[in-house]
Amino acid sequence: MVQNEPPLLIMIPETAEFRLSQLALPKELATQITLNVEKYSDLNIIEAVMGGMSFTLTQHLAQDAFRHFSAQKLDHIFCHAPECPAPAIGISLSDHMAGAKHDTTVNRNFLKLARLIGQTLDATSIVWQPARLHVGFDYFVEATSQYSEGGPFPVLVQIAISEDSKGRFQTFGLSYFSGQEVRLNAPADYPQNQVIKRLVRIAHDIATNGKIDTPTEAEGFASGETLSFTPNADQTIVDVMVVAGKPRQLE
After folding, report:
1. Can you tell which superkingdom this protein's organism belongs to (predicted)?
2. Which of 45, 172, 180, 207 could form a disulfide with 211 if both were Cys (CB 3.0 to 4.6 A apart)?
3. 92: which residues sit within 8 A by CB, 6+ positions away?
4. 67 Rama class: left (phi>0) / alpha (psi -120 to 50) / beta
């Protein structure tokens, strides 16, 4: 079953004659990506295979693409809100890979495929729907290229972070990978950027290794620092308390 709302949308310039079933890849990409236009009867849906993994590409006209998101509800990262509807190409994991969202290799291939398809079609931006993020394509390329080469998890591309009225920082979109979000509370004298760096590292660990299902404590990221993890009843949120003496700087 093809997902009606693919997690990733590649926003592309309006091209009246473009048809997904006629997508032509440059020679250097054709050796990496195999496009199967015969798997689905709908010409707006094709299969893409890369690195031994299969993905589903879907074409969305300008009016249809905007049904998947509202520009007013998106966080815009290194880009501006679109002034008018734009067409998009959606990318989803194939059905038999749907349970591997948390797998680092799968996620790297997913984002690499989006980057290569986007570059082929002169993409302007991407929308990562699980976190309601609208990201400029140049930044998307930079962040995902580093990730593909073994770099850090691209948090700004796939996980949103916000601060609530109690001063806690919370993730949004981490549940796509783990079924759980993180809510972090740190001492008041911790600089905001240091709190966010800790949240990013915790989110990366949960996205990769899975949710925290029991109350636990662990060493923090600096000497003398302790992290206390307390999942809620249905494990959809884990509260993390940073317990420490003097705040230490993280690189």
Report:
1. Bacteria
2. 180
3. 2, 3, 6, 7, 8, 55, 56, 58
4. alpha
Whether pLDDT at 1 is above 60: no
Contact 205, 182 (CB under 8 A): no
d(CA 99, CA 112): 19
Average pLDDT, rounded, for the chain: 90
**Considering all CA atoms of the chain, what is the largest pairwise distance in Å, rounded to the nearest integer?**
62
- C-alpha 173/C-alpha 200 separation (Å) is 12
Sign for the CA dihedral angle at 185, 208, 11, 137 comes to positive
Q: Which residue has the tokens 């949120």?
A: 237
Q: Quick one: pLDDT band at residue 68, thresholds 50, 70, 90? A: low
Percent of the chain with pLDDT over 70: 92
